[in-house]
Structure formats: C-alpha cells, structure tokens
Queue: 4 jobs
Job 1
Amino acid sequence: MIENTSSFLPLSQSPQGKPARVTALSGDEDMNRRLRELGFYEGAMVTVKSRMPFGGPLVVLVDQFALALRRVEADVILLEFV
Amino acid sequence: MNADSVFERVALVGSPNSGKTSLFNWMTGLRFKTVNYPGSTVESHRGKTLPVYGVNFEVIDTPGIYSLVPSSRDEEVTLDILRREDLDRVILVLDALQLKRQLLLALQLRELDIPFSVALTMNDLAEKAKKSLHLPALSEILDAPVAVVDGRLGGGVKELVRKVHEQGRAFKKPSKELPSSEEKVRALTQQSRVLAQKVVRAEGEERKEGLDRLLVHSFLSFPIFVLVMAALFTSVFYVASPLMDLVDFLFASASGLVSEIFGHGLLSDFLGSGIIEGMGAVFVFVPQIFILFLGLSFLEESGYLARASTLIDRPLHFVGLSGRSFVPLLSGFACAVPGVMATRNLKSARERWIAVFILPLMTCSARLPVYALLLAFLFFGEPAWKPGLSLAVIYFASAFVGAVAAYILHKILKTKERSFFLMELPPYRWPQAKRMFSDSLRRTNAYIKRAGPTIFFFILILWTLTHLPYDSSWTATQQLENSVLAKIGMFMEPLFRPMGLDWRVGLALLSAFVAREVFVSAMAVIFNLANVAEGSLQASLITQMKDAHFPDGHLIFTTPAVVAMIVFFMLALQCLSTTGVVVKEMGSWKYGLFQLVVLNVVAYAAAVLVFQLF
C-alpha cells in the first residue's frame, strides 16, 4: 500500500526526465486496459520526456518506448519515485 | 485445408509497427506501402507467396493491434479474419525490441487455442540495442516455431516459410471470446512480462533519441513543425516550377506540330485545341503532385508524422478531433479520396464523422491547377512571390475554414464518448530514397490513371458540343455561340450571373464537378478555340480570358469575379469520386448527400456574397 504520499504522483505531474515506477492505474476498466496494452502496467518504468505546449500531450518513455498521451490519460497513471 | 484450392491460407497478425507489412511484401513480392506510422494497414491485403519459397501460401496481412480484446475497428477486422476465414496457418509477427509488450498477443492467441508460428522481426535497431534473446526458450514457452526475420533486407523469410509450412498443429477457429475484465487483462499482461524476462537475457542499453530532444521539445517543437510544413509546401511550388515549364512547353510544341501537319480544319482543331491542350492543361501539374507525395512519404518514413500528430493534438482536440486525424487531413492536401480512406484508422466514430465532413475543405492537388490558373491571371506579369503568397493564404484560409466547420459540428453533435489519444512514437529511420521515389511514382501514377481518362472523356464531349452544328465559314467565336453547348449554358446562366460569371465560365465550373482539374481543360477548350500563341498554353489561355466580355461589352474576369471563383473552389465539394468514397466508407448515402448539399450551398452563397460586396 502507499504510505508516503509525497513520492506518489500522477504521471501528468511527474517532473521531466525523472524515472518513476507505475504503482497503480486509477481509470475505468476500458481506460486501464488500453494503458496496460501499451505498456503502462504496475511496475513499468516511466520517464516524462517533454510536454507539448498549450496543455497538449506528454511524450513519455515506457520501458524504452516513446509514447504520447494526453494529460487526462496521464492523470490516471500513478507513480512512485525510486 | 480449403477444399477448392491448393493454397494454404496464412494470416499475419501483430502489433502496429511490428514489421508485418514488410514481411508481407517479402513473402508475396507485392509492394504495399510500409510506413513508419502506427496503424497504417487499415484493411487486409492479400497476396500469394513468390515461387522462390517453394510453397503455395495465400498471405493475408491484417491491421496492427495491441490486443485481441476488441475495443476498436482494427481489432474487430483482425478477429473477424480469425473467426470467418478458412485459414490454415497464423503467423504472429513480434518485434524483437518490443517483445515485452507484444508477448501479450501471443498469450491471447494461446488463450484462444489458436496455433501459430512466430516471426521475430529483427532490424539494425535491435542489433544496436544489443538485446540477446533466448530463442529456444521463447519457442518452448509459446509452444510455437520461431524464426528470425530481417524486415529491411528480407533475410530469414525462407526459413520462416519452411517452419510455418511444416508446423504440426492445424489451425482451429476460436470458439470463445477473450474475457475483457480488468483482472483477466491484468493477469495476462503480468504473465507476458514474466515470460519476457525468461526470454530476454540482457536488458538493452537505454535508447538514445537525440532527435526527439528537438522535435518534441516543449517549446522548439512548434516552430520546427511550422518550418517543416512550410518547407514541404514551398518545395511543392519552387522545385516543381521548372519541371512544369518543361511539360507546358512539350504540350505546346505538340499542339503546334499538329496544326503544321494537318493545317486548318476540323481534325487539326480536335487534336490540337481539344485533346492535346486539354490534357496539357492538367498534366502541367503532375510535377507538383509528385513532389508533394515525395515530401509526404519522406515525413512518413522518417517517423516524424507520428510526432507531428502529437504536436497538433491539442488544437485538433479543441475542434472535436485528435492528433490521429492529422494524417488523414494531411493526405487530404494531396487528394480527399485517400484521406477519407485513412480515417478508418480513427478509433472514435464521432471523430471520424467530423473528419470526413471537413476533409473536402483541405486544398487538394486537383485544386492546384485551378488556383494556379486563376492566380496567374490575377497577377499576370507580376513577380512570382505574389501568386505564391496568395496561394499560401488560400491554403491557410481553407484549413481555417475546416477548423471552424469542425468546431461547429463538434458543438452540435452531443456525445458521451470519451476521446482518446494514445500514440506510439516509432524510432526514427533514415528514409530509403529508392522506396520513396518508387512509392511517390506509384501514387502519382494512380492519380494520372484516375484523372486522365475522365478528363479525356469530358474533353471529347465538350469539344463535340462546341462543334455541333459545324460550319467552316464561321469564326471561332461564331462557332461557339451557335453551338449546342451555348444553348445549354445560356439556359443555366441565371444561376451563374450572381457570381459574376457568364454561361461559358459557368459551364467550365459545372464540368468541374466531374473532377476539379477538368475546369482548366474546359476553359482551354471553351476559350481557346482561336489559334494558340506559340510557346505557352497558359499564356495564351490568359490572353483569351483577358479579352472575354459579356455581350454588353464589359469584362467577365474582373478581380471580384475571379476572387469569388476562388472562394467557390475553396468551399465547394465538386468531386464525385470523393462523394462516392464517402458514401462507401461511412456506409450511408444520407451522409454523403448531406455533405454534398451543405458544402456546395455554402460555397455558392459565399461566392455570391464576395462578388456582390466586393
């Protein structure tokens, strides 16, 4: 379980360039499934590479694959910094 | 095996960008476009294996999917093939670099009790990542033969084909559905990860994507995007212009030669002014179209388009679309037909509805000849940057109108559907020049084949109608004014008058409904009845236009009238092939009819407004 909330952030708020581990997905079933299929499973390593301007998508590296996703989608991916 | 054929039917299944289409091309010798953009196979392709491989396979390429739990059209198409086709074998294509993620598909196939062989695609990138894989372990765990294939050079395909052919277990249609519950999916992804750990001996070093630091940089990415697009469209005009002059010169010379050989007469007139000039008016634009296709395929192959889609997602999201619509819309700048077909890739039905509706508003290559003629007329003898800049304004204005239309539809169409944007960014690749060239040639050729016969046919009809009845003592003008065509045109003139046009231009405008570029040929046929000046077809047509006047003596082609015509061409859906494809793709003639009526009524109203207010 999560004890320390300070090390526990949604991907959307994760600082750029800092690797973190996925701890949970908090979306609905459909959203979680799509995210898992693309590699956001519990335990995967994720790094935010950049944020597109004007609130656009995030570019992230998941297990070395570059992916883009919107901030609302990144909101449901919860991370822990190691 | 299938009773009525000696072929073994083999389906290729795999994730987007896993190298399926490359493998398909190697097996069948067919050349389908493989692009470095996720989700480029939108329908299934079929082909037979080359004799070199010594087997008789009918290979089916399926859309790329991440999972066999249906959540989009692509997955449905693939599942349908597995359920309905009389298959003999399934080949699962896995990218060695992405094994961790793609093994999920292998487990799902196993869950569905479908026997398969694995084609492990390795490329130079995989080599560089220094991943060493334990292949016997992979084969054992999956209970499937595994062959390594080089997607770029074709190595290993023979070995794969042999293994597939010799595979012991026959194909069985899946008898059940995959459970889609969160727990099951979670368990399966977990399992695929454990599996991957057994197979991947050493973790590769972190992939360096230096280019991504710039191209998806938080601030620099937008200016770079604008520069890339500007470079694409300027090269379409500047690089193409000497080639266009050459084509123009060739057709003008041919026309001159015809009148020298046949002298003055009906046959000479038909060949020279009708066929050669009519075709020439359109073929002049082939270099431009070729260069546009070349630029598009460079961006696709390099992997930049996926990044550009990401960049543009935010503004597109605002008008009810997503970054995924970027590629269909960009294709629309070449031609709306492939653009409409590319919307199959969109996961959301609503997004597709809007994207297809606004696609005809993108400035397609068929409009280029029209704009080029009208702008050359407006800025005759003036420096080239003026028409160039005006054309850029037309492009931007059209895209802006498209955005406004999308926004209006977005506000009208209520929805509870959530919009997604999850996009894989494939590794950068240096595009292969040979493939880019052959690909652009093929697409240009397809354009010529589609447009050529239609234009030829209409020139034939138009020319005949302008020469019936024929009297050799008439001057060119008298001939036209007494023709059947004139009677039809004059009957319809009240419709064109509010736009500032006479019946002759109105007829050219109407003929553009066959295909927009026909407008230029029609103008050439209708106005160029008099002798052609030596050297350039375009210059002689423009001279004719400058002289054209209404019976009461005032000029037809005034600036307001030409601008009104440009506005009409920007908005109108004057392309019956587009409507045909829309009806087929959307599965609804009501949609096609609605779009046709709305866009044309708006275009007509706007053109009338512009002319009257100017």
Note: The two ends of chain B are 72 Å apart (CA to CA).
Job 2
Amino acid sequence: MALDKNQIAQRISKEVKDGYYVNLGIGIPTLVANFVPDDISVEFQSENGVLGMGPFPYEGQEDPDLINAGKQTITTLPGASFFDSAFSFGMIRSQKVDLTILGAMEVSEKGDIANWKIPGKMVKGMGGAMDLVASAENIIVAMMHVNKAGESKILKNCTLPLTGVRCVKKVVTELAVMEITDRGFKLLERAPGVSVQEIIDATEAELWVEGEIPEMSL
Amino acid sequence: MIDKRVKNAKEAIAGISDGMTLMLGGFGLCGIPENSIAALVDSNVKDLTCISNNAGVDDFGLGLLLQKRQIKKMISSYVGENAEFERQMLSGELEVELTPQGTLAEKCRAAQHGIPAFYTPAGYGTEVAEGKETKAFNGKMHILEHAFSAQYSIVKAWKGDHAGNLIFRGTARNFNAPMAGAGKITIAEVEELVAPGELDPNEIHIPGIMVQRIFQGDHYEKRIEKRTTRKRN
C-alpha cells in the first residue's frame, strides 16, 4: 500500500537525530514534528524568526504575534528564542540548521528541485525555499511520486522553473525512499506491499536498484 | 533625548507621494503597520513600489492598497493568499518582482547597515540569477544582490519610546527589525509608546537613531491569517 501523508512524515521523522536543529516546510514536512520521538532533543526553526517551536496552541490561546512560516498560530517550548528575518536566514546560510525538510513539485536525478512556480498557472513565490536549498547541507524532500494525472515527478530533468540546483539528498514519497547519488536516484526502501517494479514504473528517471530492497519500517 | 513623536498615522506618512518606494514590515499579517497602511489608503497616494515579504490578504494589510490600485509594483518573496493580487499580476496591471526571502531580508539589512551589495548562494542556477553577476567562493557559486533603496520604511513594534527606541514581540519582529533605518525616513508605529527611561536599554532591539517618526497606533486588529489549534485532551 502506498503511504498516506502522515506515514510519509512518520518515515521522514526517522531521519531526525538527537541534537538537530530542523527547518520544516509547509505541508507534509510540518507533520514530521508529530512523529519525532520524545527521547531525543530537537529544536524546530521557522524562518520567520523562531527557534524552539512547540505544538499548535489550544483554542483560545492563539497569539497573533506568534506564527510559523506557514502563518499558522504556534506555541514555543522552554529554551525558545525569537529573531528577525535577516538573522534567521543568517543561521540558515551559515549552516547552523542541520536538516531542511520541504515539499516539491519535481525533483531531478541531479538533485535539482522545482517547487515555486507553474508558468501561466500558479505563481505564489519562492518564500524562503531558494535560500534554504542553496545553503542547507542536508535536504530531504517529502512529495508524491506521481501527480494527479499519473505523471512521474521523479525526473531526469525538471521541467518547471527551478528552486535550486544539485541540492536534494534524499526523497521520501508514498512509494519509496530514494537517495540522490552521483549515479542518480538510488532506491533505498519501498513502501509496505509496493513492489520494486511498481516504483520503477512510477519513476521517469533511471532508478538504481541494487540487491534486495527492504520495506520501510514505520 | 531627541523627540521623534508625531501625533498620528496621518502626520507620520506626511511626505509620501506618488511613485515613491516604501518598505513595509510584517510577515503575512503578523507585525504589519496597520495604522500607517490605513493612512496610506486614506491619502490616495498612488503608483507606489512596495517592498514587503507578502502582499496581505484581499481585505487587510497591503491588500487594502491593492484594492484601490495604489500599488504599481510589489517586491516580495511570497504572494499567495490574495486573489486580487493574483488578478492584477496576471492581467499585467501590477508589476511583481519575486525575491528569495533571505535575499529580501538581507537587501533590507544591507541598506540598514550601509552595505551596497552582497553575495548569496540563494537562487543560483534559477531564473532569479538571470542577468546577475556570479562568483565562486570556496568552490560554491553565489550571485551578487544589491541593497534596497527606499524613501520610507514603515515598521511596527510592540513598544517604543519618544526617542524612537523599539522593542518587538514574538515573531512580529520579522522584517520590521531589518527595515528600521533601511529607508531614508523610518516611520515606526507602536502598540505602546512610553516616556524615555521607561524601556530598559538592555532590551532595546532597534536603537532610536534608526527611527525618524514614532507614534502610538490605535485599534490594532492583529488579524490571524491561519488560526491553527489543537484539541484539549
């Protein structure tokens, strides 16, 4: 069975290690925070100017001066801090943030990512994504393997305007976990009950398959 | 102490005229200068170039200036959530320059700090880099970006004093801090304006030298764009 969005987030949460500062993008990446185990110490950064984000507030306790980069109301945890937007991207550019998890419309086998514009259809802007992907050392993309029309979003070359080049390290989709290597996409894990052939069929790019591919453990 | 006080928003925006470039603080609707925006709407000033991370929503924030076609050009990083904005952009009525958020913030900070230009890796290899000078540092490609040049910066803070010293609250600091002093004239509106000496100098985020006009705003709506809550157990 292909994973649902929460399961994709759950699988990605296993990449979050003790002592990490993590930036989560909008959508599936935001859900990752729900699955990080309690026995490790992690701080979430939001590029609008907060480190140490906590869960959403209880109803009635929303504070208009306290939001995340997705403009949702949030809370802070003990040890949290606030800073301005320039400082926020300073810590991103200087690689103080250990892991960036974001969504994508397309990813290429070179590690290029497109997620901010569909010419003639949708132009919302790149927000902080271009800064994040240009500077982060470790970038994991959470996305769907195919679009609504059934076309692969895991490509030899991106067709949409790029957000960044040669930056994505790992991709987690509803079907698979893939690593981006010098040889392109390497299949690491498959979703429970999904065959290697099904993943190959849903992937436009060449997929490097070596040996037995284990099922993900969630 | 140099007194920066003006009576109200109307007095604060005096001198802002057609065709000028303004910086406006805020992220989404968080920390936007509500009173100054309302005064700009009332003033009917037009053909503005607005540097602001976002463009408000249809009926609040910069959306109010868009509705009255007072904005000629927006320089922003993210402009979703605003149907009128999208309509004007697609029809060509509104010019839009999309800039990566960190670059946008640094272009403000560079102006604030008297730095004419800087290199950043953000946008290298994308359409953002088109026509810009590039250079490798430590084996990594960067693009040259220039400081903004704006006649006015309009920021919103939580507390301020007569000398123009500012303290922000929570994530409302965002672009308000790097825009303060980045324009030739900086207008600060605050929720609470106090006498000099009442703010602890250790806690000032922006020193008053960066601010030319300050006033206490009224009737802050502080609208929440995406109210998100969790259930009590």
Note: The longest helix of chain B spans residues 101-113.
Job 3
Amino acid sequence: MKTIIAERPFEGNFFSKVIFGFKSLIKGMGITFGYLVHPSTVVTQQYPENRKTLKISDRARNQLVFNLDENNYHKCTACHICEQQCPNGSIHVLERKKPASAKVELDTFIWRLDSCTFCNVCVMVCPFQVLKMTQDFESSVFDQKLLIYNLTPYAGPTSTVLNKIVEPEERKKMIEPRGQYSGPTALAGFHIAGISKQVFQETEQRKDQK
Amino acid sequence: MSTPSISQDIMTNLGNSPGISLALFLGGLIGAVAFMAIAGLILIYAERKICAHFQCRLGPMRVGWHGILQSVADTIKLLMKEDIVPYAADKFMHALAPIVALAAALMTLIAIPMSAKITLADSNIGVLYISAISGIGVLGILLGGWSSNNKWSMLGAMRAGAQIISYELSATLSILAIVMLSGSLKISTIIQSQEAGWWIWRAPVVGLVAFLSFLISSTAEVNRTPFDLAEGESELAAGFHTEYSGMRFAFFFLAEYLNLFIVSALGATLFLGGWMPFHLGEWTMFNQIMDLIPQSIWFLGKTSFMIFVSMWFRWTFPRLRVDQLMKLEWKVLLPIGFVNLLLCAFMTLFGFYFFSTTTRGF
C-alpha cells in the first residue's frame, strides 16, 4: 500500500519565507487572471435562452425511465428488489397474474418523483438493468398528483418472452397498454380520477401472503 | 508651481465674498455626493462582473445589457426595503453608525485631486488629513457593531478596530516614504514632484516596497478579503452589519466601495503620479506626447488599475486567521516598513533616486 506523506510547511528564514509567500500568491493570481481573460472557462449556462444547446453532465440524474428495446419492450420481471431497496418508498411495483400459470408479471411500475431523492439505488440493484436515469430535468408540474408516474408502457411479460413470439397478433394479446398516468397510485386516498383501486389492493394482498 | 484649482480660479476672478464661498461649498458638496453615488453604482457592478469571471461565472446578465442596470435595480430594492432596528439596540447609535461611515468616506473623497483643475480641497496637510479622516470610518463600524446588541456584530466591530489600528501604521509608514521624497504633505505638490517620473520606479526598490506595503495595508484598512475579518461571513454571520437592513445597510455598502475608490486613488496619487502623465525625466518630446492624454483620464486609468488589483486580490486569496493577520502586520510589514523608511531617508538625503535635480536637505 502506498503511503502518502503530507507536504511539510515551508521552512526558512524571514526573507525566504516572505519571498515564498509572494511567489505563491502571484501563482494564485495568475490562475484567476487566466479565468478572467478566457471567457471560454465560464461554466454558467443562460438556461431558458439556450435550452437547445444546453450541456448537462452525463452523470446528472433527473428522471427515472425504463430501458426499452426497439419494440418498446422492457425486461422487468416484477421482482420487487428496487421497491425494497428504495430508501424513500418512492417505487411501487404492481404485478398481475400470468394467464394459465401461477407466476406473476409486471402490471404497473409506479415512481413517485415527489418523494424521490435520485439516489440511483434502484438503478444499481436492478438485476436486469431495466431502469436508468436521464438528463431530462424539466419535470415541474402544477399539481403534485402529476408527479406520480407509471413508467412501463404496457402490462405483460418481459422482452425475452415477447421477442420469441413471431406473430404480432399473439404478442398484442399478451400485453395491455399502460399510459403515464394509468393504473392506481400508491398513496392512500391520493387517487387520480378514473383509476380503480383494485389492482393495487390485489398486489398488496399477494405481498402479504408471501 | 501648482496649477490653481477651479475654486481658486473663481475666487480670484469674483472676489472672496461669503456668498460665493457658500455657493462653492454647496456646489462642491453636491458634486461630491453625486460622484459618490455614481462611483458606488459603477464599482459594485464592476466588482460583481469581475469577480464572476474570476470564478468562471457570468455575473449579472438579466437587467439591461449584460446586467448593466443591476446595481440600479438593487439600489431601488434597498430603498424600498423595510428598515429593521433590533428591539434591544441603541436606536440613536444604530442610526448614526452608517452616517458616520459614509461621512468619513465623503470627507476623504474631497481631498483627492482628479486633475489639476478638478480639486475640491487642496489643503497643505492633505496627506495627514486623509490618513486621519479615513480612520474615522472605523468609528462607524465600531458604533454599528456595538449598538446592534448582537455578539457577532460586536466581535466583527472589535476585529475591525484592532485591524485598522494595526494596519494604519504600515500604511502611514509607506505614505511617509513618499512624503519624504517629495518633501511635502500637500497633495498637489506631491503630484507635481512626480513630473520627472512616478515615485514607484524613480526611487529604486524603496518605491516598490512602499507601494506593495501600502497596497497590502490599504486592503486591510478597507476590510476587503483577504482581510475581511470584520465581516467574515463564515464565522460571524455578516459581522458588524448583521443587524442592518434597507437603506442603512446600503450606506455601509456604499461607504465600503467609496473607501475602495479612495485608497486606490490615494495609492495612484502617491505612487503612480495621480493625474500626472507618464513622464521620463528630460525627454521633452516623449513627455509632450504623453501630455496629449487628458489628466483626468490618467487619474481614472491609474485608479481603475488599482481598484482592479484590489478586486483581483479579493477573489484570489483566502481569508487570514486573526492571529495570522496580526503576525503579518507586526512581524512582517512593520519591520519592512521601518527599514524601508530608513533607506528612503538616506536616499532623499543624498538625492540617490532617478532624475534627482538637487541634493535637497543640505
């Protein structure tokens, strides 16, 4: 293991100390002067005006989305790991029973932006790399209810299952489309009009049985 | 020897009646106040822009072209803000403090000549007057800190007091070197004595050392970073002006920037020749070309340079600790200042500087 030794403070007589001090100050002034005369070093972005040319870091985490393949199919198996690991309880994975089998598949993937801290844990724990964070940061809305999203575009099996089926009609039978705001919301009494509570309750009951 | 100033011109032409004296006094006062307000606005805008670019930012960009009206907008905001006075504060002192701070700055401002003609007060003890009056500014800070009845304000004010008492010494020692070389306390004479060249380079080494010493101690005197212990926002909230808001805060703010202008102008006057163009001894041709540029442009250019250097310091250096601050003054600057003064005395005595005309002193 490499040992790091801290640099000793400058030692010397009075004059060499003064000269050393001046040298280091002038070095610092050179750096800041370089920033002053090179406007290219400015990092500030004039945001609303430069919306089209905005540069955002690749590491920015602003919106949780699903990794979808070319047919808009995801790989989520509704394993609930992200839901269990989420420190704020911002994720609710709702499942439905597969037809003619005892297994379950994903129905709705609810993500609560209003309580999310963008810690990236859900992305890291997902065994199938279903989730990712994007740089789309303009997520403000006029109603808090609109911050509770559904992330999956359909309820149904994973892309591995769907892509094996050749017939498009067969595929369509297996899946049911879901919109951003369709499906129940996770917060009790915090429901969006026209959405039933039924699926949510069924999932909760199934979890209790486990 | 010196060119008569505007006031002297009018005096000689119109006679010395009390009415005219009063009119001149009021005119000068209004001019100084107007200058003060405009200089404050410009300096605050310049500081914000320059500091932003030192830190890879843009600074004000929204109000007007490149935020040029930002400080006007801020002034309007401060004017309309509620003026809060703490319940347990000494009301009279609390109100008096910003006025003292601003008045001291204004009183110093009138003694600084901007060109041979634009000179409000050319006293024969000009330098002494400026060093004495600029010390009153700290009285405003002390009063404000004490009367706020707040521990942070109090600590900030005490720090400011200790700091200014210490650094006045170095500032005065470096000013004394110039007074010695030019042989006068009168500011117009000091400027005239730099006709053959500015003291910063005409007095070899001594001039430069005195200039650097003055630069450091004047930065400390106006409480700017790296010596802004009186404010020290990471330690003392906002220091002496924690309890000030609205217009009273604006007064302190304005006084701070005026003091910056004053010390920069004083540094430019003493070491860089004030309004005196860049002359080189007996090179008449060169000197005449330099004289084509107006005196006030020379003055403003030099002062702007000094202000820029101050801002450069502020946005580059980290703040000192209190013990480091005192160590720098008493153990470093003061001994250097004394030795420098001694060397300067010998230099003056033997006429040992560039373009020395006589062996003055014998």
Note: The longest helix of chain B spans residues 18-54.
Job 4
Amino acid sequence: MTTTALDLAAIKQQFPLLQREVNGAPLVYLDSANTSQKPSVVIDTMTAFLRNSYAPINRSAYQLASEATDAYEGARTKVQHFINARRVHEVVFTKNATEALNLVAHSWGRTNLREGDVVVLTHMEHHANIVPWHMLVAERGIVLRWVPLTADGQLDLTTLPQLLDGAKVFSFTAMSNVLGSITPVQQLCAAAHAAGALAIVDGCQYVPHNVTDVQAWGADFMAFSSHKMCGPSGVGVLYGREALLDAMPPFLGGGNMIADVRLDGFTTAELPAKFEAGTPPITEVVGLGAAVDFLTGLGMANIREHEIEIADYALRTLTERFGDDITLHGPTDTSVRGSTFSLAFRGIHPHDLSQVLDQKNVCVRAGHHCAKPLMRLLGVSATARASFYLYNDTDDVDTLADALDGASAIFGF
Amino acid sequence: MPGLEDLYREIILDHHRNPRNRGELPPPAPHAIGHNPLCGDEIEVYLQVENGRVVDIKVGGQGCSISQSSASMMSQAVKGKPIAEVQALVRRFKGMMSIPDADGNAIEPDPAVTLGDMEALQGVVKYPVRIKCAILGWNTLLEALEQV
C-alpha cells in the first residue's frame, strides 16, 4: 500500500468507472497517459451546469447567460492559478492540446518564420509537436533540428548549444508520453532564451501529474489537455505570454474573436477571445475547472509523491519478477521520470500483450503512441504502455505483473 | 488463460513463430507496403507474377501475431494460384472477417473457395480491433496486385 499523503481508497471511490467490474473483477486502468478517468465531482459539476446554468457565454444580457459566462471565465481563473500564469487572459481554451500547438505554429510560426529559420525539437516529441512544424517545413522551408536522447531515454543536452545556435524556436515536451522521462524544463527554457529562441512546452503529460509554474519555467507557450487531468475531453489549454499573444494574428476566424467586422475587413477582440473563435466547449471548460479544483484539493505535490512511489514499486517489482525478460524503456531514476512505462516483454508483440492483459481487466495501450520517430529510435514498431495515475496503487502493479505471467503461458515461454 | 483460445489457435502461433515465405523480391517485382496507422504494424508484399499466375510471393514487415500469421498463411495460400483465384480467396477471407463488399453488402461464402488453415483466424472476428491486424496483409496483397 502507499504511504503518501493521498488516501488511495477514498480517491478510487470518487471515480465511478473504477467501481465497475468486468467479468466479476475490477478494472485496472493503466492508460491514463492516453486519457484519464473522471471523478464524480467533474461529472456532477458538468451535469449540474447543463441542468441549471447552461447558456451562451459573452453575448447575452440575461441573468442565465451571465451565470454561464461566470462559470466559464471562473474556470479560466482556476487554470491560471493552477499553472501560475501571470494574467488570466494568458489562458486560451482550445479544442485540445494538439490544437493549442497548431495555433502557435500556425499563428506565431507563419508570422515569424521564414525559409531557413530553425526550429529545434526533440526525439521524444508527440506527433502533435512534430507535424505542425513539418507543415511549416513544407510550406515555407523552415529547418528542423532534433535534440537526441541518452541511452536511458533522457534528453542528451551535450550538443544543445550548437542545436540552438541561430534557432528561432525550441519546442519540447516536459514529460515523454512514451518513456515517462521528465525534462529539465526551466533549464531548457533558459537555454532557448539564451539563444534568442522561443521556448514552447508541451505539458500534456506533465501538468496532470506535477506542480506546474509557467513563470518559474520561463515558458513562452505551454499546451496541455483537460482530458488527461481528470477533466472532460474536448478542451485543451494554450498558455502564452501576453506580449506574444497580443502580437499574433488570430488562428481561426469567426464569432467571438472579433471587435468589429465590416465589408472591408475586421478587427480582433482582446485576449483571450481573439483566439477563441466560435462557441467554445462551455460545459467542458466548466468541467475542467472542477478537475482543477479536485487536483488542487489533493495537492499536485502529493500526487507527484504518490506517483514516484508507484514508479519505484513498478520498476522494482517488474525487474525482480521478470529480470531480462522485460525491457522498461526510459529512465530508472524516478526523480526524472513519471509513472508511465513503455515495456517490451519476452518478444510478445504489444498488441498481443495488450489483448492478453485485457483478459485480466488490465487496460494498457499498445501502439506507437503518436511518437513514431521515437519508436524508430528505440528500434521497435510499437510498445505496450502502462501508465499510472493518482487512482492507481501498488496492487495495480502486482495485477499487471500477474497478467504478464499469464501472457507468457499463452505464447509458450 | 480462458477466453483467448479462439484467438490464439496453435496454428496461428506456429505461423507467428515461423512465418512462411519471409523475405523480399528484387525490383521490378510488384511490391506494396501496408500500414496499420493505429499501431504502427507494417507488412510488405512482393509478388512474382507470370502468365497471370502468382508464382512467388515474399512477405516482410513486422507486427503482432495476428497480422504476421495471417500474412504468412496468405502467402502459402496464394502461391502458385492464378490471379483470379487469388482475388476470390481475398474476397472469401474478407467475408470471414465480416468485412462487407464495396457496396456495403455482406460477402456470402463462395463454396468453391476453401480457406483451409486460415479458418483458424475466424476467432479474430470476436475481437473487432484485431480484424484490422488480420486483414492488413490481404489489403497489401491487393495493392501489390494492382501493380501487375
């Protein structure tokens, strides 16, 4: 059992889906790096909002619309404090983190990047932080450079100054969705700035699990998603420094993002509306606000401590039980990793492994995790990934290990 | 482990462990690469076609036991067959996988076409996610045939 400040039994009770039994046994949900389960408070807040307070935001005078606007904007304030943004309008709601990163590449990138300009990425990026830049390579001939990895799956920073030399952008993940590696975000932002480059942080895997402080990081932009942090899908967040967002052209055009529209043109609204064209996911943003309150109530530092304990236990247990038969990609030092584990087991293909683990109600992701360049670097086409969150405990690690034993039986090892 | 016997039949595991007709054929052999974008699995099919007959086939790539064994069995089944028979076989196999024809209609089994060992893959239908794995090699075969 865990010894951290979190009461795991009580936390699990707050997730209705985790109460569900399949074939008479509880689910062991180890796919939170993909998407997280939702606590009752998020579900109930969204339901109550839909039942009692749902209305358009920002555009009607009646009381109900005002309530809905307050709920929506209230969530923005919660998110601001959650990531320690300086100003509330530095928080832009998007469809998801992918859209947030595309917004930056499209709006800032197309305004500021020319042929030959250098954007530095890392070998452990998610496709969402690769493809938007590839699109600019195709469109205007920017040049991509890649920060390599060390043997244990951390960023190899020995050549970083050369890679950043002359670069306009350094865009990198705060935590790998495949390897679990946590990157030295503050150091990387400082290195980017020293080279005169912008620092863009993909916080999808980090923000749900750790204390986030965009000001301490010195990040220029930071993207993350609601659905990985106990909130609903359909909403993501872009944090951007005010001066940058102010200077950028809008991304999508339409309602809400304008100050005026004439026959001969338009002027944009102030931040953050400038980047929130059309009716936003109102209920989902309210749900995200509830998720922020939920996580803040538990304490992000406590969640991180709990996950270090799970990660330590998983590393120890899986290594002791399976030795060389299991490969756990990524760092073994839990001070620089989260509780996401990509694993290779006895030559069993990840798809087959995932299928067999499912017989024991163990839900793991099999595939390339939207990180094909990293898969190629690891020399695999896919991995099985077990990712733990605040509602997982060490028993879940044991269940995973038992289920792995079962896989050996089928495949004849 | 109960429940998975239908999926992981011994014949499937045998083809997974010892895939038949592995390798490649040199250009200009008709060649296609199929990807399963969900999982990164990849199958390559090389053909040697003479007088309307598939006289040789090689299979490359990597993937799960279902995709690899299905492609392995497929290679055995089509080797030596006239293209028309190969196409009938693909149709029969897709029918077994509950994949409708181009018009969206269910494919009725053609009694003239036998699947032999490949009947073992019938169990895949119970696991809809895996149908894509089983069919990957067959779609790649069709792509390679288009180059003939």
Note: The interface with chain B takes residues 349-352, 355-356, 359-360, 366-368, 372, 375, 381-382, 406, 409-412 of chain A (CB under 8 Å).
